[in-house]
Design a protein that fits this description.
This protein is an alpha+beta fold. The chain contains 4 helices and 7 strands, in the order H-H-E-E-H-E-E-E-E-H-E. The protein has helices spanning 5-20, 24-29, 49-63, 122-129, and strands spanning 31-40, 44-47, 67-77, 81-92, 96-108, 113-119, 137-138. Strand 5 (96-108) and strand 6 (113-119) form a beta hairpin. The protein is globular. It starts with a helix and ends with a strand.
């Protein structure tokens, strides 16, 4: 038996808070066993907990320190998941502060999140995912 819709919404909020707080263990605990992260419009996906862990290790150690500021612009709920839209201002070496639009949809699974669908520029996604970008495969 799966989690209720209310439980999944609470898990999605716990996941987002754990990401914001740099909490790797809690972030990973919100995911189903075989999560899939989609990169759009790049048309790539990152599959499986080992690859997603590579992403989050990079995210917390390298990407988060680059964030000068961020602002949640919107949040919405569908049957598929919880969507969040952000402005993320990054410190870009040699380029100052760069503003990036990012949309993330936390996708509901059976017990937790089955993954995330992220919409951002290729440069932003490559910066965000670091070495995990090379583990991604084309969406079939």
């Amino acid at each position: 038996m799966g989690s209720s819709r209310e439980d999944l919404i609470a898990i999605a909020h716990r996941h987002a808070a754990a990401e914001a707080n740099g909490d790797l263990a809690t972030t990973l605990s919100t995911l189903d066993p075989d999560p899939v992260y989609e990169f759009e419009p790049a048309g790539l996906l990152l599959r499986g907990l080992p690859a997603v862990k590579v992403y989050y290790e990079h995210f917390f150690k390298t990407f988060q320190p680059m964030i000068a500021s961020y602002e949640k612009r919107a949040e919405w709920l569908t049957d598929e998941g919880l969507g969040e839209e952000y402005w993320i201002d990054l410190r870009a070496p040699g380029r100052g502060i760069e503003r990036n639009a990012v949309i993330g949809i936390l996708l509901f699974g059976k017990q937790g999140l089955r993954g995330e669908r992220l919409y951002a520029s290729d440069r932003m996604l490559r910066t965000m995912f670091g070495p995990a970008w090379d583990l991604a495969e084309p969406i079939a």
